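Lab notebook, bench 4. Still working through the backlog of constructs that have no structural model yet. Next entry is a single chain of 242 residues. Request: give me the structure tokens for it.
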Amino acid sequence: MPTKLQRSETGLSDQLVDKLGLEIASGKITEGTVLTSTHLEALYGVSRTVVREALQILHNLGLTRARTKLGTVVLNRREWNLLDSQVIHWCQVAGDANALMSDFSEVRYMYEMQAARLAARKRGTSDLTKLNASLKNMRDAFFEEGPESQKLHTAHLEFHNIVLDATQNEFMSRLSVLFTPMLRLRFEIVNAQIKIDGTFLVRHKTLVDAITESDEDAAEKAMNILLDISHKEDLQTLRKED
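Model written out:
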């Protein structure tokens, strides 16, 4: 019997969203299950307003869809917004983090190598300034706070997003918004187990140098090296998790 929700700093609707989202992600609530307001109100001891708010959020995340005269139906995983940080969190807690990381590693090759080429071809002076500033932030964080610091992870994420912005391609740039949650998950899991050293900074500087020189081939190669190492780290982490 589910525990009745209690008022806390986290609102009742947010609590209900988290409970239902995790149960859907873990398979406890399966595809095709009908969620009715009356049932959820009684099950969790909450008002109809709370249930409606929670179901609307799940709908917005692609986990459910309202069906006339039926109720709210749980959708197939293909419909979920797997790039949303909340959905990623539920999948991680449900034990799917490894599969997501493996798939995402493959996707990174598809867009980041092309982004490096475009950045080398189209970058402006301001992009180079931002890249060098980001590289400095990474270096400072590495030597001042260590390879596991949150400051380094933040600067590293910013660096890759700046490369996307340097492509001067609006669609490519928007990928930073889409993939930031997965990159955060990747850094959180991998960097907790894999120790990085100073060569990490050297490899990123090689990419900056290639973009600065407008050398598309060198930029693509430098990004490929970064991704190869990231992929190897991912595989090491996945094996440890297994």
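Notes after review: The chain has ten helices and three strands. The first helix runs from residue 12 to 26. Flag for follow-up if needed.
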